[in-house]
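ugh ok so i messed up the first submission bc i forgot one of the chains. this is the corrected input, ALL of the components this time, i swear. 1074 residues overall. if the numbers dont match what u have on ur side tell me asap before i send this to the collaborators (the ones from the other lab, u know who)
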Amino acid sequence: MIYLDNVAGTKPDQRVIDKMIPYFTEHYGNPSAHFYPIGREAFEAMEAARVQVADFIGATADEIVFTSSGTESNNLAIKGFLKNSANKGKHIIISEIEHFSVDTVVTKLINDGYEITKLKVNKGGLVDPADLEKAIKDETVLVSIQYVNPEIGTIQYTEELGAICKAKGVTFHVDAVAAAGFVEIDVNKLKCDMLSIASQNFFGPKGAAALYIREGVKVSGLLDGGFQERGYRSGTENVPAIVGMGLAAEIAKAEMAEYVPKLEAMQKKLWDGLGGLFDFLHFTGHDTRRRPGHVSFWIEYIEGESLLMWLSLKGFACASGSACSSNILAEDEDDLVASPVLTAVGVPTDICAGSLGMSMSRYNTLEDIDKVLEVMPETVQKLCEMSTMYNQK
Amino acid sequence: MIYLDNVAGTKPDQRVIDKMIPYFTEHYGNPSAHFYPIGREAFEAMEAARVQVADFIGATADEIVFTSSGTESNNLAIKGFLKNSANKGKHIIISEIEHFSVDTVVTKLINDGYEITKLKVNKGGLVDPADLEKAIKDETVLVSIQYVNPEIGTIQYTEELGAICKAKGVTFHVDAVAAAGFVEIDVNKLKCDMLSIASQNFFGPKGAAALYIREGVKVSGLLDGGFQERGYRSGTENVPAIVGMGLAAEIAKAEMAEYVPKLEAMQKKLWDGLGGLFDFLHFTGHDTRRRPGHVSFWIEYIEGESLLMWLSLKGFACASGSACSSNILAEDEDDLVASPVLTAVGVPTDICAGSLGMSMSRYNTLEDIDKVLEVMPETVQKLCEMSTMYNQK
Amino acid sequence: MAKGPYSETVMDHFMNPRNMGEIEDANGVGEVGNPACGDVMKIFLKIDDNNIVEDVKFKTFGCGAAIASSSMATELMIGKSVEELLQLTNDAIVDALGGLPPAKIHCSVMAEEAIEDALRNFYKSKGKDDSIVDEMKAKITKEN
Amino acid sequence: MAKGPYSETVMDHFMNPRNMGEIEDANGVGEVGNPACGDVMKIFLKIDDNNIVEDVKFKTFGCGAAIASSSMATELMIGKSVEELLQLTNDAIVDALGGLPPAKIHCSVMAEEAIEDALRNFYKSKGKDDSIVDEMKAKITKEN
Ligand SMILES: Cc1ncc(COP(=O)(O)O)c(C=O)c1O
Ligand SMILES: Cc1ncc(COP(=O)(O)O)c(C=O)c1O
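and heres the new structure output, hopefully the right one now
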């Protein structure tokens, strides 16, 4: 299996796993138990990880809150921040291509009297900073715009967006879940007040994520109880996963400069190769502002799930739409959600189901790309032959 | 180090860890990715764990929602349930010895117009079912009472409490975090509608927990986003930890009958031994309705933290109060919280700081108890000599 | 290897679709589309003089379940009489496929609808009114 | 091995408290208590004719920080003049201990208060009014 769905989660680094194991077997204490070694060891390892994660994004350790997933970080950022700003204004700005964990949270706030502006994106998936500037008004309390879109790979003008928020005095949250480990993150350059990252997206384990909260920004916790995470998040901490996330952050920081160019080379090869195969293949997202190693497209006449399944049968793990949108477990066809991202970037609705994403990690090689390019023609040909649409051409 | 703080978390079973590892190294896919093997493997392993956890507590798999901690399960149960019952009444009943993750959540609801009744407990830490019966009124929407108290080990009359709730048609949540793996749990015998358990408390890993939600009981999720956990909890699932929790549940179910009598033997030996040492040692909790392997007490003249530290220096990991109440990281002395549980069971307030808990697991032996009993006299003697209180005797 | 969301039979029909293609001299062609899901299914029928399905082929633009449903439908159709075709429900297709995920049941419904559409066009191509199909369906319902 | 919430010096004084005990013929005994935290600290002073601390002992019912604070306080007191004792602040005790967790600073404050209380009782035991302590403190404040 050649894994090309790294935007849905990466294979953890073996060094990370090796570092985690002793926190299952030896240092299994509860980190709130400060008065005996196996508790204290767990605590200190967690605090060391906090420093590593902070260093990774240019923050300080006490600006880092550990959570259990990118979704939880986004929920904490938005809901936790609004608990403290209810009387400052009720207008929130996001983009129309946010991840469900931002879009759903914000959309539900309409019930609480909030007004929501969802900024349009252009064909490349980019929010125009001028649009943000125009959209901000006196009542605006929060802007939340993702750094990288997982589905089409677009990297926003986040620095520019941050500068506008800062100038206007509006709190700025960045969902950087699909950016971390692939695009450099510096909370001071981005001028953001909050930022979400998730360990499993940069070679760390599942079960650990973080929310950066700039000093001075008030956020209330969503989970009440004990004194963990300085009150931002009660509950026994997932020490092994946090330790793993810490090392993954350190490794990403140290090694990104080395592996990102390789990802870019694979990306270019795949892009050029696919572009030359069929004239009815259309790339999605931006040509240059892309997550390194991310290529996404749709093919006329072919439905995405079928292509995904054929590629899987041939040994390639890819994505159709975001990992979340393939709600195959739904109880009802009405729960099958067409990707709002593709609609937003202008892909014709009736073939929205047809998108495919391939995202590489530092474990992929140029040979993997050769293999994809080898199987694509026959696979697409087979599905075209079967397709009512191709026929009608 | 002899570990006697198993109520704060147990050492994971080696079989559990061994089973988890491949979900880091091989089956690292996102379980929402159904269309390629490493995603689907992760999904199926998670669903197998759901069956194991359901079997452990007499539920069916689709009544199980995985969360990240006992605290999160308790928050989801209470907040998630109330989102759907707001117009049914605004009265909630808990006991006065609930864990912070129930007590804090419920106490904060006063701000939303809820009336809270906190049922008193007797000297042994027991809620009188007759008190519950009297406290329920037309407006009562939820009763949440823990199964086992972590600090004093008391096992409530949960079946009786459940029968009363059922008869009165009131939803009943049981916080069974300190019970699972030590006391048999059957949601049908308990007649509960919701029940919380956490993996790290029964030889599973940290980072996985569950909320049982009886079919037909409506609960809204706290974390919005993707389609995971049938909408009860969005966010990428912590597959390795969930897999570990599943096996831990299966092992506990299979082996409790074997290890519980051993825990009871250790408990008796420790209880009898300590009782014979000093006439100024006082046991807390109930004589017979106790978590197997749990002994708790306070000693006149001696402050708990000092005893805890001395025992730690001599190689014993114990608890003073619940793991949570040792808020040594607080920024202010006012944040040091005296244990409300000890006050509730009538321990004089000025020596509340003096309680100690020792909770055994199936990894402890009778020799461990011998060793504790050996060091206790000199340790206590040393602290007594130093104490102003002993002097004044 | 994990199974995936589809049964073995679905996967078999997806990978090796039976009767895929077109019939040049078809005397009944049905087409249904579900724009929301982006599926379009086409069934080509060749019905002989005894009103028996002599040949059938399909083309589908759609997901795995849509392809497998059409393929399985054609298998169930060959050799059947026109009356029998109308009795071929989506449930029968789902059963023959060893089940479908709930969210994908509509793919089998599409196949059922495509068959009916093809039959209507068969009668139309013979210059008849396709209300005959409604009559036949009414009769079947009464008999059951 | 992980350090724990306390510094090495705190742990050393906790494990090996200096000057623990009572002085039978003390001429100044101070006692302070913090019922909320459950700490009680007692300091026994023996001050010679030149107003120099000849001997000092302590007893404490309390947490690790309380025990270490009292032990360290006694170490800092021996050989000091009465004036110097009054200049011994809780900050000096915390510094000497290599720091204390914020929530435990109050333990060092207790030690400072116990010293002052012992001094007041020293003057009282000599039949003097303890307002002399207030005067001395005022003078110290002015000098600084
Ligand atoms: C009874 C009880 N409830 C809830 C919790 C909280 O569980 P967690 O620490 O997994 O958040 C605990 C923790 O020890 C507990 O003992
Ligand atoms: C941009 C973005 N935000 C949020 C998330 C949610 O993170 P998690 O799956 O860890 O909950 C994802 C997941 O892929 C993502 O790509």
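quick check: The longest strand of chain B covers residues 294-299. that seems consistent at least. The mean pLDDT of chain B is 93.
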